[in-house]
Amino acid sequence: MDNYVLFTDSTADLPQEIIEEFDIHVVPMRLMIDNKSFYENELDSAEFYGMIKTSHKTITTTQVNPQEYEDCFEKFLKDGKNVLYICFSSSLSGCYNSACIAANELNSKYDFKVKVVDSLSASMGEGMLVYKLALKKKSGLGFEESISWAEENRLKICHLFTVDDLNHLRKSGRLSRTSAFLGSMLNIKPVLHVDNEGRLVGISKTRGRHKSIETIAEMVERYSEGLSNDIIFISHGDCLDDAKELAEKVKEKTGITNIVFGDITPMIGTHTGLGTLAIFFEGNQR
Fold it and tell me: How many domains does the chain have?
């Protein structure tokens, strides 16, 4: 088996037990809170969402710079190991470009190499790709084969999201002020997905939270028909009860019982807000 380490970033929203079980290395993303910089791993999800609920702090996100990536990767190259980094979608962040700059610099200096793969995914969609790749690595898949597998299978990971507060989508530039206002007045809950270019786009609108959850469960059933999904990931922005409701509906419709829950961590939660609910699975289409 090739000697390589598997990296992702904190936007993958993977539970700590999976990270530890498969020895996955995580690049922490950064955010600014009232102009003070924090790495995501310095804030747990409860602390972050509590801050959104109770304070008026200004929270923004920032990308990891090339030097930070070099600092993460270089010690493994010096130790005689290749690095495979599965990165947050390039359509949602500039981190992919920064990581590629770092990889090019390091690859010119060392015999062992860094390969950056654009996941074209977000949250636990990225996490699911990394998880499945970690299983392949554990079973003996080598460095070059793992790169090929990741690139060939990344678009098989489906993402379905709904948000509770449309104003967060407005602030992130994905919804107009007028649409956010009218949607809130009418209790509209959009269903969104991540497309083949790794962009977050709307695909449906429902009225009310429970209807949006039912709609997502129906989409999971339809998009995964004929496939042997053995696991589903669900992430949420401080709405575990809704996540459990979605899980039960999906179990009823698909028979899949192995469901992993995770928190939507601050990098993504800053843009999607409280009450965001997302599900990830292998599907026939995105």
Answer: 2
Same structural domain for residues 147 and 162? Answer: no
Residue 251 is part of a domain; what is its CATH number? 3.30.1180.10
pTM (2 decimals)? 0.91
Backbone angles phi, psi at 207, to 5 degrees: -105, 115
134 and 160 part of one domain: no
- Choose among 264, 272, 219: nearest CA to 240: 264
pLDDT digits (tens, 9 = 90+) for 77-103: 999 999 999 999 999 999 999 999 999
Same domain, 86 and 163: no
- The whole domain housing 264 covers 156-282
